[in-house]
Design a protein that fits this description.
mainly alpha; 19 helices
């Protein structure tokens, strides 16, 4: 099994990018700025909104990239200022790059695309031939660009308007660089035109498909296909094809463990590679389940002095703060805070003896080995598994994920003895939804792969 400390920095950076995309697909409200839709991130203005701000604080990576780019064009200019043979050689490379830059803008059957993709004919004046080719290419781009790009292309055409022979190499380089920039902007314009017809639902579907494709590609770079499938089956505890009951049973078992889930060793609650990008989702569910059991355990101790008291809501607010942190920060909800809330709800002021006994009961019942704690957790886990097993994890669910998550009917209440309080019932329902979404995601990303015997 791969350890995260042994992964190359480039792959770690890729993992972070894919996880960000996964989060954008599964919980966009945590990633997007307040009031922003997912669709807003697709416009060219949105994609490049940070460029101006970043110009004043360029990173070392940006500076190195600029130096490499400058060196590339300086060397290209030097080649075009050399002999005809050197000019032909360099133009061949530049034409190849131009072809790649404009192939999505011009049909491959167009004559200019043939010129860009084939060796140049020998000539004593390669730059004059190149200038003619560039004029043709710019004219074609001008026919196809948005009106806002006309001025940029006209300016590039002027660079080729009979420059002195000694200025021709610089004119060609300036024009080629300009074509790259114009082509990028035209692609943005086309993307915005297509995206302009999208709905928010279209954007969500695209992000999910992109996230799933990126997840599969990245995990397959980290592990062999055989390792992925073998690890998943070993985690399930079966040697045959995965089935719905097995994955539900195994995931519920992982949620009920006192050990935090992890996709990398060492861990006593290790998830297979198929869960690498859903690990934080599973950890969140694990923390939510523990918070529910803690709240239900405390509830079993209290007969409120004031029946109208909302003491359990205050308890849940304290616990939910820790759940939202995801277990990555030190816990601020001290046991003493929970004791104070329970004592305030159940004991009349001045009854110090009863208060001390109740505090001791709180400390006892919140131990994972306490019979009441274990009973309530077992009830919740069993109810969760019973609700989830009938969920049909059909082959092809991945293709339906876009609509099934967004258009799924509201989850009905899951009634569990000890969790009848409205605050707990609502969060039990939320837990069921989270687990279903997690199972649907893993099925969409890996279901067909795991069922394909040829994948190993």
């Amino acid at each position: 099994m791969v350890q995260v400390s042994t992964l190359p920095p480039e792959l770690l950076e890729q993992i972070n990018e894919v996880y960000l995309l996964h989060s954008l697909a599964t919980n966009p409200s945590k990633i997007l700025p307040p009031g922003k839709s997912l669709l807003s991130t697709f416009s060219s203005r949105g994609r490049h909104s940070g460029e101006t701000a970043s110009q004043t604080s360029k990173t070392l990576k940006d500076q190195v990239s600029e130096m490499v780019t400058r060196a590339f064009w300086d060397e290209a200019l030097e080649s075009l200022s050399s002999t005809p043979a050197a000019q032909l050689s360099r133009l061949r490379l530049l034409y190849t790059d131009l072809y790649a830059a404009v192939e999505s803008l011009i049909p491959s059957s167009h004559h200019i695309m043939f010129i860009l993709s084939h060796p140049l004919s020998p000539t004593s004046s390669p730059l004059q031939s190149a200038a003619g080719h560039l004029r043709v290419l710019l004219s074609i781009l001008r026919e196809r660009c948005a009106p806002v790009r006309d001025a940029e292309i006209d300016e590039l055409l002027q660079c080729l308007d009979d420059p002195p022979l000694n200025e021709l190499p610089k004119a060609c380089i300036t024009t080629i660089r300009g074509i790259f920039n114009v082509a990028d902007r035209m692609k943005d314009d086309l993307a915005d035109l297509v995206i302009g017809t999208w709905t928010e639902q279209d954007a969500r579907q695209w992000v999910r498909r992109k996230a799933i494709d990126s997840e599969r590609r990245t995990v397959l770079e980290m592990f062999s296909a055989r390792t992925i499938k073998t690890s998943h089956m070993e985690w399930l505890g079966i040697s045959s094809e995965q089935n719905n009951r097995a994955i539900v049973t195994r995931l519920v078992k992982a949620l009920g463990s006192s050990e935090s889930v992890s996709p990398f060793p060492p861990s006593n609650n290790l998830l297979p590679p198929t869960f690498i990008f859903t690990t934080f989702d599973v950890l969140h569910m694990q923390n939510l389940l523990q918070a529910l059991v803690i709240a239900a355990s405390l509830r079993s101790l209290v007969r409120p002095v004031n029946p109208a008291s909302d003491w359990l809501s205050r308890i849940w607010t304290l616990l939910e703060m820790e759940v939202q942190k995801g277990g990555t920060e030190p816990a601020e909800t001290k046991l003493l805070h929970l004791e104070d809330e329970v004592v305030q709800a159940a004991i009349s002021p001045g009854d110090s003896d009863s208060s001390d006994r109740l505090r001791e009961s709180v400390r006892r019942i919140l131990r994972p080995q306490d019979p009441v704690f274990m009973l309530l957790q077992s009830r919740l886990l069993n109810a969760l598994q019973t609700r989830l097993v009938p969920t049909r994890m059909r082959s092809g669910l991945g293709r339906q994920l876009e609509t099934e998550i967004d258009e799924r009917p509201p989850e009905r209440e899951l009634l569990v003895k000890g969790f009848e309080d409205p605050v707990l019932k609502e969060n039990v329902r939320a837990l069921v939804v989270m687990v279903k979404d997690c199972l649907a995601w893993v099925e969409a990303a890996w279901g067909e792969f795991l069922r394909d015997s040829g994948s190993i």
